[in-house]
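protien #1 (seq + structre)
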Amino acid sequence: MKVAIVGAGKLGTKVATTLLDGNHAVTLIDTDKETLQKVSSHLDIMTVNANAKETKVLKNIGIPSFDFLIATTGSDETNIIIAAFAKKLGCERVLARVRDPEHMQQLQFIKDLMNIDYIVNPDMGITVEIYKYLAEKYTLSNGIFSSGKISLLEFNVNKYKQLIDMPITGFSDVLPNMLVVAISRNGKVIIPHGNDVIRENDFLYVVGEKEPIQELNKKVHVRGKYTDLQKVMIMGGGKTGFYLAKMLSEFGAAVKVIETDRERCYYLSTHLDDVMVLHGDATDLSLLEEENMDGMDAVVTATGFDEDNLLLALTAKMHGVEDVIAKVSRTSYAEIISLMGIDMALNPLDITTSTIIRLVQGNKKVLSSQLIQGQAEIMEIIATPDMKFLNTPLKDLNLPNSIIIAAIHRGHEVIIPNGETSIRKDDRVIMLSLLSDISSTEKFLNSTGKTGFFK
């Protein structure tokens, strides 16, 4: 598949890297020559130093021959224009990154008018994941993923105490024909392996046949426990803070937003109904005490600085707030996060990259996918003859640590795999992978041919 990416920033570069691992042909366009040189020094990629708003640039690269164009510059308007130009010139599908709330209010109109196939919004993407964690769990929407006869269930291991301190290898002795595919521990989602031990307070993601999972659900979830989300504090009134405050307010929660910029506070107060907007510095502990942070059901740190978000999240956790979520863009902070004890840390770059990759691939072989806490993705794929991992025992596949095969549909049979299990042609495979290592997922799914798995 031929893909053009406009904008060599963090998102454009990560999408390019991931697509290359999937064996796609990628052309990266940017006006900054130095940035392109840095990218080309470590990626085998075609780069074009030009302004893609000029139609001659798109014509020169042969845009009608491209399967996809992705516009990820720092300007919404530029992305919309470039995507529209590319579509008009004959590119098969186009995608634009759009972030401003004003545009989001008229999204369908923009797509129809400019003939744009897809629009992605990183801030809205991370907001949806935070909302799902805070609001949907309170309404007991715990059937996170269900496909055919297979379901996935999430629960706190404290609800099934005999699993505490148990090695993963012993799990099937207690719950046969089920598999732990992920563990959420101190805000970090990990994929367990044989040497891992289930710890107190872990949240387990368990896959099995639908009926046994439903029976387990009755034991580990008490109806009515999670119906009291009332007070939420959001630190940072940027786009993520804005979208989240709006959604939680409409859900019925009392929301406070703390923002340092006075003009931004005015914008928030005039565009949000039933939300308290406070002008102040969220790192000021006296302000947090005055605004009763201790009494909050949840705190979300979404300032523009990762370090502030982590510090504020740690502060909230030390004050006894039950649910604390941090927006963190740097993957290098992953290990620090796991030691802090916060409930969830989300990376908007990982979430948006995953969304874009799935849109580029289409649904020819990916039947469905679902994010888990914004850090992992569970998907169902069809095993086709060109897959390089067919007819090989899973133990011999050298699977990356970031991937686990969760279940297999084979005709009317459901298989919870072990090391001896092999994937066969036409199997429907449920697999889980970490978004932080999405490149490994694309390498694993790459076909034996030269055109790429999803061509």
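ok now protien #2
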Amino acid sequence: MRHPIYFILWIVLLHVGSVSGIPSALAASAPMDSAEESLSVFDCVRRAESSDPVALSVRAQRLGAQAVVEQARALPNPSVSYLAQDLGLQGSTGPLLLQQVTAGFSPFAALLRVQESRAACASQRQTQAAIAVDLLRLRETVGRAFYELQLLEKLWRLEQDSVRLSEQLVAESQTRKRHGDASGLDVLRAESEREESARLAEHSAHTLAMAQRAFALLIGESSPKPLLLAQEDPSWLTQLPIPIADALSQVQKDDVSAQCAVLLELALSKRPERAWALEELHQSEVLSKLATLRALPLSDIQVSGGIRSSMAGVGGIVAITGSLPILDWNQGLRHRAQAQGVRAQARLAEVRQQIQIEVESSLRDFYHVRALRLQRAQPLHERRARALDLTRKLFAEGLASFGDVVMASRDLFSARRTLLQLERDALVARWRLAVAVAAW
């Protein structure tokens, strides 16, 4: 699968925007103006799954697995031999020859082909499970990138609000200076804040533009173009996905451990990693039986029949050939099959632990971030907004300094950034939980 490459590209381009000294010419354009259509997270996932790199990779894996099955089911071709031998005798027409034609086949090869086809079918099912695992990780990657890009868009709008506020402060400072209520220092500080806000806005615009193009490549677009993302349902910030909520309907809401246990069993019944490990364990059992059959060289036995023509007349030939199981009892393949079985058991235990940590961490993260947002971030944002409004009124009446207004505005934007980041964290945790349980 190629989606890890796109994810790395997404991260690299995202971090490009965090480098200082960005040329203003690159950041001057508004990234949202060139978007063409609104895409939900599910639309982006479907596009990524149907993109050429992913679709071609999946097709190649399936064709390879099918080829292994077809090869395992094919019976060996019969053998044909022709022998012409000069007997060293002369006849009336010249040298007398002994001519012999035989055809042979391996009658017991079908026994091995049955076990080999079973092993190949188990390998094919492993490939199908591996494809499902890759697609599952692709969904998680696209979902994370989707919400990261949404956060960048909201931060870009926030910086635009900061620019507008700084321009208003400059106008108010100049007005107060004309009335004699402010000094030139206040105007200079207001203009400095405006320049700083403009720099941050350009930086945010450039970062968003680069991230939009990287995300377009991630979901398989032919060219790196900006995409407009649809806003999520506000209920997603506080409510679990419907399949997960239905599974937890019989569990107490405050018993997180019991909820994790229920979701773990649900995830184990759906996750392709567990199916992959089970198929590997089944394949090891089939390969062990196959190694036992090959210890007896039944497939080496070949029965041949033919005719022989010489000066004495025409006769028949029957030949049976094979190998004696004296030196090689196929112990290497037996031990290899046993080792694969032990690895499959270890993988099963590892998969269970991995699914458990993914389910529990994403569920607890969602509850934790939801509580922080509702109990801390939202009240703080509301108080910061009221404080800024009151400070600006006092500043207009000459009862507050310009520094108080700057600090209040900075506090408000900091609280708003924190709120937006917590919303992003809640959506990412919700998406991680849906992917961990394989239910969305």
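The longest strand covers residues 79-91.
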